[in-house]
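Anyone up for a design puzzle?
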């Protein structure tokens, strides 16, 4: 979960979805806009934001867990 000024800690599909939704809304983008820019189907993006566990997300989280590391997301300046 994110607190003011802190990065998102991603441990689960739900926490990844919350981060994506937060940064998308902060950027003023609709799901359709972001999906188009990222080359994704809007329903796939919606599923990610809702915390649905896709095979890709499941695999990434499994690798991170086996390595004993966590993922954090914060706004980039690029």
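Challenge accepted. My sequence:
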């Amino acid at each position: 979960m994110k607190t003011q000024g802190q990065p998102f800690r991603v441990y689960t599909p739900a926490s990844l979805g919350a981060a994506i939704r937060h940064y998308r809304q902060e950027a003023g983008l609709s799901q359709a806009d972001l999906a188009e820019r990222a080359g994704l189907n809007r329903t796939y993006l919606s599923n990610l934001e809702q915390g649905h566990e896709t095979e890709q997300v499941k695999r990434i989280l499994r690798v991170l867990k086996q390595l004993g590391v966590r993922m954090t997301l914060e706004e980039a300046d690029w």
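A detail worth pointing out: The chain has a mean pLDDT of 92.
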